[in-house]
Amino acid sequence: MLALMMTKSRAISLVTVALLFLGCERMETVETVYPNFEAAAKAKAIGNGRWIPGFLPPSAAGIREVHNLDTNEVWLFFRSNSTDLPAVVSLCKKVTEREVVYPRKSPGSWWPQMLTKRHKDSQQAVNAYEYYQCKERKVIAIDRSKSEVYFWDLG
Questions:
Q1: Minimal CA–CA distance to 35: which of 57, 60, 58?
Q2: Which residues contact 147 (CB under 8 A, 6 or more apart)?
Q3: For residue 2, how many other CB atoms are within 10 A of its CB?
Q4: Percent of the chain with pLDDT over 70
């Protein structure tokens, strides 16, 4: 009987630790939404030392930025005029989908599943996006048909 009680106690402890761990990860992850470039600039959220890189173009809209304070991972999404897209990737090198290091997980339901390590249809990702490597572990994926830009920095 004592052994059964100890087993239950250990099980409860493990579940508690797991729930605390999951809760802490959520607390370490911050999501911010800006309607446009002006709002992000006014919040001083763009540039060196900020979560949003300085390449954000003035036409950026629907900006969604997520970062993890513990791992320094960053995920960024925005729409932009197609004429601004060359400036976004001007300091980056075009790469193939096979060269891309994907985030380990999605930062939210708005992030395309094919832009994570768990994506299922590699060919779909190849056809849908142009990929650019910007320094080590920083990637931009552009869907030119929708003028959508996804950026991630794996910290």
A1: 60
A2: 79, 80, 81, 82, 85
A3: 6
A4: 77
| Structure tokens belonging to residue 19 | 């729930």
Could you tell me the two tokens for 104?
Answer: 């380990």
> Are the C-beta atoms of 140 and 131 separated by less than 8 Å?
yes
pTM higher than the cut 0.90: no
108: helix, coil or strand? coil
| 33 within 8 A of 63, measured Cβ to Cβ | yes
Terminal C-alpha separation, the chain: 49
- Give the start-end residues of each E strand in 1-155: 29-36, 61-68, 74-79, 93-95, 130-133, 138-143, 148-153
Candidates 43, 94, 102; CA nearest to 52 is 43
Residue 141: closest CA among 101, 105, 108, 104: 101
Confidence class for position 26, pLDDT limits 50, 70, 90 = low
**Other CB atoms closer than 10 Å to residue 149's CB: what's the count?**
26
4's tokens: 């059964």
Per DSSP, 52 falls in state: B
